[in-house]
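Hi all, long-time lurker, first post. I run a small reading group and we've been trying to get comfortable going from sequence to structure in the token notation. Rather than ask abstract questions, I figured I'd post a concrete chain and ask someone more experienced to write out its structure so we can walk through it together at our next meeting. Sequence below, copied exactly:
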Amino acid sequence: MVNLTRIYTRTGDGGQTRLSDMSLTDKTDPRVAAYGDVDEANSAIGVVLATGGLPTEVAAALSRIQNEMFDLGADLSNPLAADPPYQPLRVTSDYVDRLEQWCDQFGAELPSLRSFILPGGTPAAAYLHIARTVTRRAERSAWTAVHQYGTEVGTQDRPGGVNLVAVKYLNRLSDLLFILTRVVNGTSSEVLWVPGGERGNDPEPEPGQFEPHPPAPDAGDNQDQEQA
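-- Answer (accepted) --
Happy to help. Here is the structure in token form:
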């Protein structure tokens, strides 16, 4: 159980912080960057949920993912150890399996794409695109940590590495978020990328084409590209 009694501590004012194993490291450590990016992606998902009007199954999946991303941050902030004094919280293969199942479930009815999708659409879908791209950044940060620390347990001479399943989770999550943008937007209104040589002279926008979308309905009203 987490017990937060005071938010500010002044202990990080010198540019260092403690990882979950209480080891001291710089705030520029790639581990810190990775779990910081995870926190940012989780915040973007929170904005998606706050827009309301999501399909019930999408909202339920995103709510579970928000909890799992705290597990993920805890994992990335805890170097692998051979004999830890307590059982660490780790992302395991069942987390990844669940994301893949959601990818299959939500993607089953979507038509194939013939080009990349321009980010945008409804507010919820636009924020899902932001969450997707921040998740990709988190994956890159995690790989930077892997390249620096490896994937083995620590020894007296070197710190422990990074759990590769946690990095895999980020990859699958970005795939799922891309699929969910299509589910939330509806594929009939997708705007596809047209490469420069094929665009010609861009037409003038139709009147009202770029007017803001109307406010999303309350959640209760709706019950019911990414490349590796």
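A couple of things your group might point at:
The chain is about 50% helix and 5% strand.
Residues 25-191 form a domain with the Hypothetical Protein Ta1238; Chain: A; fold (CATH 1.20.1200.10).
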